């Protein structure tokens, strides 16, 4: 059997630069499984790309329609932006009964859809509601009780900013100002000017490192508006320290990942594959994990029928079972084939909680001497 | 050139000037020139010979074996009813029309295949009926542009033009668009003289100008012609124009109706009745 | 009360960024205005042409960097700039040859050119991503600051600092030089005058012996220069990302229109108006006022007229208001 | 070849493409293309009305489409009682105050004699009014947005049938168009373009940032549908039996059924709009509009009230775009403000109109279908093309990998090439204006 | 019928019309002459509502019409032609005429959908009327030709034709004669006289052709530099020193003059 997996991401459009790394990561997992020849009695797997454009629900729906009804994919890694993800889920995946695992749609708003999704929708990125709380705790423990917040103006940024503000204020912190920034715009002086005026001990940048977020940090540093920051997952990547190096010493951040070894390990796996993509780009390991989960669940279920294997996704993702690192998919397939149980860890230390989203184990990071160092895991 | 048959020129309602800029869009087709050849025999200095053709490839012919010609020192005038093809004939001589038959000779050279642009280079000066000055440039810059193809010192010619039209000297640094109608016509003629043309073609230079300016212009044109420069012009003001013409062509429906000296035509009762308003 | 510090804050967060951004927009708008004035259409491909030019500069910068060539304290990209301009000229001329020239010969209506430029925009859009991918690229090197906040504070002993980046300084200086050169060229040289003549009246220009194709060629060459300079300066100052360059189209057009399409002076003014309106209207004046006012009057709120969410909307509002009072733009564009 | 013949062939060709999709890919895909094609055709008709008939350059299509989308939320979502209780009244009062401030400013401007006193009075009124408005309004907004922000945090809608949202979307767009038209058209049509561009951006900014209204960037999902739910159908034994009777898999049957339902609704709207537009075009009204387009000054001198006609046509066209926007949001089932991007909703619609043939209603319909088809299909075509092109290269050839990787960007490239080709060989569009 | 009271029109610092005061008598054919740039067309535009005067008042039959838009004035019976022909270029010559009459029921959107019968009838009548006018102007063969494909003079005829499509009270003609063949111009002159006599149209005619003015106009007003220079019968005007100096001139100085007289 040749099994097809849809990779439905915004290859063109506003987040095309992030997706340029997420796509290959998903394909890497697919290739790994396919090459092993162990899936469902030697089935091969191919990944089929579909372009959501991130913004155009109709185009995304059309692409999903094509993937599912024409290519006959058995599962979808995607979508990326929460807007199109919701549209695809409702209009295509749900009616056709196909599993979707989104690596990047972190909006809390998607959570409630889980109640009416027939158990078809999962995500390897934790909901922002959880991250907001973690973030508030980290800052408080650092002794910081007054921050300014800027977020990328989409459901991810807004949701994260909202949940952070609520959590932070609850434990006694104060947010001097919350300013949105649009990704892909020409200039961020206005935002930085306003944020600087509002002041705060630290600037929380709930954006993307390869989008407006970087522009904001750059401008804030250069004008001396802020010199330490706090970075949630969208900002945390090697690109961050590459770009800013020791300029952001003393900044903090967190991203969903249990251990530093996982990050290192995923980098190695990526490097071994010979691709020229950047494994630390936000949501890239998540993409790998999403694809891996689908395939492992198939193996566990013994079928590629989404309506059957959807019930095995939680099983393979969580304990009990043999922990499976990134790059060990073949081993997992074998164990599953033998009727064993696995606990998929993958690139991000996947731990799925009801209703089907990542539990959110976070690695707390401190930027020291231009390196990002692990403080602890939460 | 016809707007109807060239789809690229269809006039969509692009009134929105924040998007397009219709200011000063041209009509003269741009094309590559063909070869020229020398023609033996006695020919007038400039002649459009037996020209037949229309505005577009498969549009009906407007000109039918129409001939117009002019010699050095002469003024040739084309008259005729509206829509007779006077302007079309001028355009044909200037290469703005694809001729199906006939040829254009300049100084014994067949230039039928040349583009309008190269005809300018060959020394033909043309003053269109309208839009004949650069409104946003100063008077002096207008004259400079007239001499664009010349590489030599133009100050002498400029002085001559200023002599011819003293008012222009006064207004040399004013934008030409701020001048009155008659003054604009003077700029236009002056501009074409700056080229040092071998032949000057004028399309209705006096349309809409006041009598006093018209007299002035006619005077200047005569003066210019006296210097040996052949002048070919279209005029609706036929009686005055034929009065100064050495040659007159009456066009009727794209054909040569009557030809003769200005005086002969003025004297011809038929011409008087049907074209000169009695 | 501390007026000096208030001024420094204002300069640091409002004036310097807005002047830089304004210069970048002005350079872009100059290109738009040149094409509008001489080739008579609004070039929707402008943003992507900028990306194209910058892309070449980036590739060359990488090459130079790998060869170990550098410009000392200045960004290496400056060395690459002349070559990039040359390459962009070739690009634009080839595009003109393949696309626009045909319509010019057909005497097509300007709107057809506009639509064709839309097509060109799509194609460039794809091409840039084809070559360089959609990623963000930073290609600046050399000295980062002319003066940094820390240095400034150390130097002056003020409590507030002022930073001027090298790229900011470069942007403004280059913009001034380019604009001056352009004005000299258009107003004084024979070729410049012939371009103005062509812009005024195509037919008459042709009848005067001005070769339209040459005018068009010069226009594209100048435009290529302008966009490459604008694109590289912008990329140096912020970063290069194809999508952002596409998005730049909007503010650039707004600048050109506010200033009066077809008027080079207007393009410059327009660029600054848009930049300043984006930055100032949504600025939170708290910090400035805290310094500027006596202590007991110091504001407790942010003193922000509108949230930054609306900065783009605000600049458009300003645009509409300017047009209401000055329907042809500030410097009376070509529209009559 | 006669004109009718040619047009029929063109339409047949596009139909053929879609049918081919049905065979080669799936009927679901084909039907979805038809549905979006119908909506696109309606949008293109709206733009064509403005551009083709009247020469008005509207580059704010996106804004009107988005307003249509907003209408769906406001009409069809159930009201959020808690939010209304928390701050509904306050927000409304705030809005009234805001409106009153502007009205006050205008009245002062009109009533008082020009001079410093007037300027001061106006600034004072606007200033004080603005702060009072912000004070009242902001508090209300905060209260509303605090109500379960992850789930609701907005006022909700009226809970009316979703079909009602379509005309309401048209009305909302018409209102905005009236406002723009009054400002921009009265002065000079020249700068309509920039005004529309600006208003579109403002509309989107409001949609993105006014969470109390439609949840801003957090999106409103789960909009009611005018057709049954696929899952419900799949669970309906009667339906399943019928589907199986026809020999179709019930899952596929259910999604086809739903899509056909949408297609029917959209088709009805398209036919009505097309009929009205055609009638208007081929009448003295159409002649008048053409005259105005050709020469405004002369038309004005011949007794035609150019500004009023422009306003009329601008409002009509925008209303149609608004309606199409509402239809599209209904089809999506959610309102996603960040999805409104000029490239997709303004430029692409323009491409439809131009490629189809501006000034010709049938052309717009054709353009809508064709361009939408391509917009969706150039992606797989691009991939296919790339793999054919690189077929001879080695598996791991760097160039091959790069090309395959970049295949996604074929989408824009192909759109551009098609636009350029059509312009080149059929500059007035596939079905030109007569 | 029309009074113009101290009208000024400034373009920037330039005073195109600089305090013009004049009166147009009902039923007359008034000639308006003056050197190029005297402000004649500008004054026309002010009266016809195309331009708003900087100051001054225009009244029509006692009613203040200053600043009313052209389309309102059209419905009050004030028509004008343009010095530079303003044809509707993408429409046929016949359509150019048919679009003129106001109050066509087919111009209301509602009727285009639900009042087809009435429209069809009206159209038939309009068409007949348009053909009649075309025939009168000797361009009936151009009825179905696009208006931008006819010669310059023919466009001017079309321009005149439009004013004949409706019953007007006063018609402003801006250089109908420029570029029109003299023989045809005579015909046009006759038509103007006929319209004036039979339908009691009032005409105001700008023209540089003195023969034409001579044939039609009484009184004649001469403008210069934005002001009214002289007013009276043509004979009076022709004798006026100022007018001769500013406008008429003394004829050609050299050969040309001789040629004309020969
Ligand atoms: N651009 C054009 N396309 C097609 N036909 C045209 C075009 N211009 C003019 N014609 C036709 O060509 C014929 C001759 O026109 P032309 O302009 O040469 O007349 P003319 O003798 O100059 O008349 P006038 O004295 O009125 O200017 C006319 O019948 C006109 O309909
Ligand atoms: N829109 C404008 N802006 C600036 N100046 C203008 C404008 N319109 C006309 N003028 C100037 O006003 C003056 C009067 O112009 P007008 O057209 O009224 O002259 P005219 O008497 O009709 O002349 P002609 O006999 O040449 O038609 C001219 O000098 C002209 O350049
Ligand atoms: Mg002519
Ligand atoms: Mg005049």
Automatic annotation (TrEMBL), chain B:
Ranges for domain ABC transporter: 39-278
InterPro entries for the chain: AAA+_ATPase, ABC_transporter-like_ATP-bd, BCAA_Transport_ATP-bd_LivF, P-loop_NTPase
MF annotations from Gene Ontology: ATP binding; ATP hydrolysis activity; branched-chain amino acid transmembrane transporter activity
Signal sequence annotation: none
Pfam family, one: ABC_tran
UniProt keyword list: Amino-acid transport, ATP-binding, Nucleotide-binding, Transport
Positions of region (Disordered): 1-40
Composition bias type Basic and acidic residues, residue spans: 9-18, 29-40
Domain of life: Bacteria
Gene Ontology BP terms: L-amino acid transport
Family that this chain belongs to: Belongs to the ABC transporter superfamily.
Protein's UniProt name: ABC transporter ATP-binding protein
UniProtKB/TrEMBL annotation, chain C:
Chief location bin: membrane
GO molecular-function terms, A-Z: L-isoleucine transmembrane transporter activity; L-leucine transmembrane transporter activity; L-phenylalanine transmembrane transporter activity; L-valine transmembrane transporter activity
Entry GO CC: plasma membrane
Domain of life: Bacteria
Keyword Cell membrane tagged: yes
Keyword Membrane among UniProt keywords: yes
InterPro entries: ABC_transp_permease (IPR001851), BCAA_transport_permease (IPR052157)
Annotated compartments: Cell membrane
A Pfam family recorded for this sequence: BPD_transp_2
Membrane topology field: Multi-pass membrane protein
Membrane-spanning parts: 6-39, 51-71, 77-99, 111-132, 168-186, 215-236, 305-325
Record keywords: Amino-acid transport, Cell inner membrane, Cell membrane, Membrane, Transmembrane, Transmembrane helix, Transport
GO biological process annotation, one example: L-isoleucine import across plasma membrane
Similarity section: Belongs to the binding-protein-dependent transport system permease family. LivHM subfamily.
Annotated protein name in UniProt: Branched-chain amino acid ABC transporter permease
Organism of origin: Aquicoccus porphyridii
From TrEMBL, chain D:
Residues spanning the membrane: 7-24, 30-49, 56-77, 83-108, 120-137, 157-179, 191-207, 260-281, 311-331, 343-362
Keyword terms: Cell membrane, Membrane, Transmembrane, Transmembrane helix
Keyword Kinase among UniProt keywords: no
Lipid bilayer topology: Multi-pass membrane protein
Main subcellular location of this protein, as a coarse class: membrane
Pfam families per record: BPD_transp_2
Gene Ontology CC terms: plasma membrane
Molecular-function GO terms, alphabetical: branched-chain amino acid transmembrane transporter activity
Subcellular location(s) per record: Cell membrane
Name of the protein this chain belongs to: Branched-chain amino acid ABC transporter permease
Organism the protein comes from: Aquicoccus porphyridii
UniProtKB/TrEMBL annotation, chain E:
GO cellular component: plasma membrane
Matches recorded under SMART domains: AAA
CDD domains listed in its UniProt record: ABC_Mj1267_LivG_branched
InterPro entries: AAA+_ATPase (IPR003593), ABC_AA/LPS_Transport (IPR051120), ABC_transporter-like_ATP-bd (IPR003439), ABC_transporter-like_CS (IPR017871), BCA_ABC_TP_C (IPR032823), P-loop_NTPase (IPR027417)
GO molecular function: ATP binding; ATP hydrolysis activity
Signal peptide per UniProt: none
ABC transporter domain segment(s): 2-250
Top-level taxon in the UniProt lineage: Bacteria
Keywords: ATP-binding, Nucleotide-binding, Transport
Name of the featured protein: ABC transporter ATP-binding protein
UniProt organism field: Aquicoccus porphyridii
Lineage: Bacteria, Pseudomonadati, Pseudomonadota, Alphaproteobacteria, Rhodobacterales
């Amino acid at each position: 059997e040749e099994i097809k997996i849809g990779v439905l991401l915004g290859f063109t459009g506003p987040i095309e630069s992030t997706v340029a790394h997420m796509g290959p990561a998903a394909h890497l997992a697919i290739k790994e499984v396919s090459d092993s020849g162990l899936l469902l009695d030697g089935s091969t797997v191919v990944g089929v790309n579909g372009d959501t454009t991130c913004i155009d629900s109709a185009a995304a729906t059309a692409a999903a329609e094509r993937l599912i009804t024409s290519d006959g994919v058995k599962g979808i890694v995607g979508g990326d932006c929460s807007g199109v993800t919701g549209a695809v889920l409702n209009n295509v995946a749900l009616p056709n009964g196909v599993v979707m695992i989104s690596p990047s749609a972190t909006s809390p708003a998607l959570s409630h859809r889980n109640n009416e999704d027939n158990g078809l929708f999962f995500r390897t990125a934790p909901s922002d509601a959880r991250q907001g709380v973690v973030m508030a705790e980290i800052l408080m423990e650092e002794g910081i009780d007054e921050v300014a917040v800027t977020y990328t103006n989409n459901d991810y940024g807004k949701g994260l900013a909202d949940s952070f503000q609520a959590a932070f204020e609850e434990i006694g912190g104060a947010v001097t100002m919350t300013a949105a920034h649009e990704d892909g715009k020409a200039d961020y002086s206005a935002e930085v000017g306003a944020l600087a005026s509002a002041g705060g001990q630290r600037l929380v940048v709930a954006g993307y490192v390869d989008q407006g977020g970087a522009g904001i940090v750059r401008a804030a540093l250069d004008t001396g508006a802020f010199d330490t920051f706090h970075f949630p997952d969208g900002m945390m990547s090697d690109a961050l320290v590459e770009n800013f190096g020791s300029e952001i010493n003393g900044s903090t951040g967190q991203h969903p990942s249990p251990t530093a070894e996982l990050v290192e390990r995923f980098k190695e796996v990526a490097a071994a594959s010979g691709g020229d993509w950047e494994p630390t780009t936000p949501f890239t390991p998540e993409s790998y994990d999403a694809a891996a989960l689908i395939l492992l669940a198939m193996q566990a279920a013994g079928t590629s029928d989404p309506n059957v294997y959807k019930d095995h996704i939680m099983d393979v993702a969580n304990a009990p079972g043999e922990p499976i690192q990134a790059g060990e998919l073949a081993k997992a397939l074998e164990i599953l084939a033998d009727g064993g149980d696995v606990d998929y860890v993958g690139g991000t230390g996947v731990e799925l909680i009801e209703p089907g989203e990542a539990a959110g184990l976070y690695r707390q990071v401190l930027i020291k001497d231009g390196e990002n160092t692990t403080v602890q895991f939460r | 050139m016809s707007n109807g048959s060239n789809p690229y020129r269809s006039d969509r309602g692009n009134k929105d000037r924040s998007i397009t800029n219709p200011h000063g869009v041209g009509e003269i087709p741009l094309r590559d020139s063909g070869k020229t050849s020398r023609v033996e025999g006695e020919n007038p200095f400039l002649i459009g010979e037996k020209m037949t053709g229309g505005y577009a490839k498969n549009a009906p012919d407007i000109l039918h074996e129409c001939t117009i010609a002019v010699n050095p020192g002469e003024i040739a005038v084309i008259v005729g009813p509206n829509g007779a093809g006077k302007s079309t004939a001028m355009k044909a001589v200037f290469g703005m029309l694809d001729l199906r038959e006939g040829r254009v000779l300049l100084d014994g050279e067949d230039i039928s295949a040349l583009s309008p642009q190269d005809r300018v280079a060959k020394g033909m000066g043309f003053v269109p009926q309208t839009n004949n000055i650069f409104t946003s440039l100063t008077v002096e810059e207008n004259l400079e542009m007239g001499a664009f193809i010349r590489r030599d010192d133009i100050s002498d010619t400029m002085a001559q033009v200023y002599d011819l039209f003293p008012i222009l000297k006064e207004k040399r640094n004013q934008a030409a668009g701020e001048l009155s109608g008659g003054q604009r016509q003077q700029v236009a003629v002056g501009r074409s003289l700056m080229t040092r043309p071998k032949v000057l073609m004028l399309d209705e230079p006096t349309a809409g100008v006041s009598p006093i300016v018209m007299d002035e212009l006619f005077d200047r044109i005569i003066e210019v012609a006296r210097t040996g420069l052949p002048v070919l012009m279209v005029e609706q003001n036929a009686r005055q124009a034929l009065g100064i013409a050495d040659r007159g062509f009456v066009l009727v429906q794209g054909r040569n109706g009557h030809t003769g000296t200005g005086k002969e035509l003025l004297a011809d009762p038929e011409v008087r009745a049907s074209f000169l308003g009695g | 009360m501390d007026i000096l510090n208030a001024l420094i804050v204002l300069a640091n967060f409002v004036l310097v960024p807005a002047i830089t951004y304004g210069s970048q927009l002005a350079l872009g708008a100059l290109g738009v205005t040149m094409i509008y004035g001489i080739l008579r259409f609004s070039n929707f491909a402008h943003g992507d042409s900028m990306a194209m030019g910058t892309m070449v500069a980036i590739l060359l910068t990488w090459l130079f960097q790998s060869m170990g060539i550098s410009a000392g304290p200045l960004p290496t990209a400056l060395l690459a700039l002349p070559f990039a301009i040359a390459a962009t000229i070739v690009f634009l001329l080839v595009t003109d040859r393949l696309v626009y020239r045909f319509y010019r010969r057909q005497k097509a209506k300007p709107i057809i050119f506009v639509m064709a430029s839309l097509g060109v925009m799509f194609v460039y859009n794809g091409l840039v991503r084809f070559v360089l991918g959609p990623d963000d690229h930073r290609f600046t090197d050399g000295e980062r600051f002319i003066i940094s906040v820390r240095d400034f504070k150390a130097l002056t002993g003020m409590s507030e600092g002022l930073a001027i980046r090298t790229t900011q300084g470069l942007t403004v200086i280059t913009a001034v030089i380019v604009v001056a050169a352009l004005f000299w060229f258009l107003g004084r040289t024979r070729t410049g005058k012939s371009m103005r003549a062509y812009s005024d009246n195509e037919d008459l220009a042709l009848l005067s012996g001005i070769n339209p194709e040459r005018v068009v060629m010069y226009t594209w060459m100048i435009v290529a220069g302008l966009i490459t300079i604008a694109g590289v300066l912008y990329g140096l100052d912020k970063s290069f990302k194809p999508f952002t360059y596409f998005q730049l189209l909007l503010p650039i057009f707004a600048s050109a229109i506010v200033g009066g399409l077809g008027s080079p002076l207007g393009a410059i003014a327009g660029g600054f108006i848009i930049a300043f309106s984006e930055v100032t209207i949504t600025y939170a004046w708290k910090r400035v006022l805290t310094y500027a006012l006596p202590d007991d009057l110091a504001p407790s709120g942010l003193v922000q007229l509108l949230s930054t969410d609306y900065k783009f909307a605000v600049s458009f509002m300003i645009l509409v208001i300017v047009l209401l009072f000055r329907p042809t733009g500030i410097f009376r564009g070509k529209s009559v | 070849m006669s004109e009718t013949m040619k047009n029929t062939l063109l339409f047949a060709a596009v139909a053929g493409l879609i049918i081919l999709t049905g065979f080669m890919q799936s009927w679901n895909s084909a039907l979805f293309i038809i549905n979006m094609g119908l909506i696109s055709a309606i949008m293109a008709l709206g733009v064509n009305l403005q551009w083709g008939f009247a020469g008005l350059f509207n580059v704010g299509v996106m804004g009107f489409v988005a307003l249509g989308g907003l209408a769906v939320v406001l009409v069809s979502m159930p009201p959020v009682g808690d939010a209304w209780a928390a701050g509904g009244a306050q927000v409304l009062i705030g809005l009234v105050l805001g409106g009153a401030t502007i009205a006050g400013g205008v009245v002062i401007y009109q009533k008082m004699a020009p001079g410093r006193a007037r300027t001061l009075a106006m600034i004072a009124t606007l200033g004080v009014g603005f702060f009072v408005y912000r004070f009242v309004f902001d508090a209300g907004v905060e209260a509303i947005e605090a109500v379960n922000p992850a789930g609701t945090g907005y006022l909700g809608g009226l809970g009316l049938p979703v079909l009602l949202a379509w005309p309401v979307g048209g009305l909302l767009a018409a209102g905005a168009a009236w406002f723009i038209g009054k400002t921009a058209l009265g002065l000079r049509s020249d700068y309509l373009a920039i005004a529309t561009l600006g208003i579109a951006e403002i509309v989107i900014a409001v949609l993105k940032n006014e969470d109390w209204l439609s949840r801003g960037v957090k999106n409103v999902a789960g909009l009611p549908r005018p057709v049954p739910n696929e899952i419900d159908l799949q669970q309906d034994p009667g339906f399943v039996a019928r589907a199986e009777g026809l020999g179709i898999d019930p899952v596929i049957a259910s999604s086809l059924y739903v899509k056909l339902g949408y297609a029917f609704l959209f088709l009805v709207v398209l036919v009505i709009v097309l009929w009205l537009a055609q009638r208007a075009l081929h009448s003295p009204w159409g002649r008048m509009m053409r005259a105005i387009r050709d020469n405004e000054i002369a038309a004005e001198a011949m007794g035609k009230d150019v500004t009023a006609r422009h306003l009329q046509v601008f409002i009509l066209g925008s209303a149609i775009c608004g309606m199409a926007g509402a239809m599209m949001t209904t089809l999506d089932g959610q309102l996603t403000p960040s999805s409104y991007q000029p490239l997709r909703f303004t430029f692409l619609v323009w491409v439809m109109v131009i490629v189809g043939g501006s000034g010709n209603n049938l052309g717009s319909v054709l353009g809508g279908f064709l361009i939408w088809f391509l917009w969706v299909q150039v992606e797989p075509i691009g991939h296919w093309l790339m793999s054919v092109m690189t077929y001879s290269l080695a598996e791991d050839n760097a160039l091959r990998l790069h090309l395959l990787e970049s295949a996604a960007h074929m989408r824009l490239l192909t759109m551009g090439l098609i636009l350029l080709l059509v312009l080149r060989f059929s500059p007035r569009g596939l079905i030109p204006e007569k | 019928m029309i009074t113009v009271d101290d009208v000024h029109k400034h373009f920037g610092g330039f005073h195109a019309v600089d305090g013009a005061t004049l009166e147009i008598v009902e039923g007359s054919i008034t000639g308006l002459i003056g050197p190029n740039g005297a402000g004649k067309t500008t004054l026309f535009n002010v009266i016809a509502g195309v331009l708003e005067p900087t100051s001054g008042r225009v009244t029509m039959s006692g009613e203040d019409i200053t600043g009313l838009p052209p389309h309102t004035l059209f419905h009050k019976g004030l028509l004008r032609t343009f010095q530079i022909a303003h044809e509707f270029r993408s429409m046929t010559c016949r359509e150019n005429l048919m679009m003129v009459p106001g109050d066509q029921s087919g111009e209301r959107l509602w009727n285009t959908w639900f009042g087809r019968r009435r429209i069809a009838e009206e159209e038939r009548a309009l068409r007949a009327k348009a053909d009649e006018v075309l025939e009168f102007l000797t361009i009936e063969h151009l009825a179905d030709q696009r208006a931008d494909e006819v010669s310059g003079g023919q466009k001017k005829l079309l321009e005149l034709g439009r004013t004949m499509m409706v019953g007007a009270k006063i018609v402003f003609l801006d250089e109908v004669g420029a570029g029109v063949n003299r023989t045809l111009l005579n015909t046009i002159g006759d038509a103007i006289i006929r319209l004036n006599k039979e339908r009691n149209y009032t005409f105001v005619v700008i023209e540089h052709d003195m023969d034409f003015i001579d044939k039609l106009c009484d009184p004649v007003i001469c403008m210069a530099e934005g002001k009214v220079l002289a007013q009276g019968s043509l004979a009076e005007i022709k004798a006026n020193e100022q007018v001769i100096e500013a406008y008429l001139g003394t004829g050609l100085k050299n050969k040309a003059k001789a040629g004309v007289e020969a």
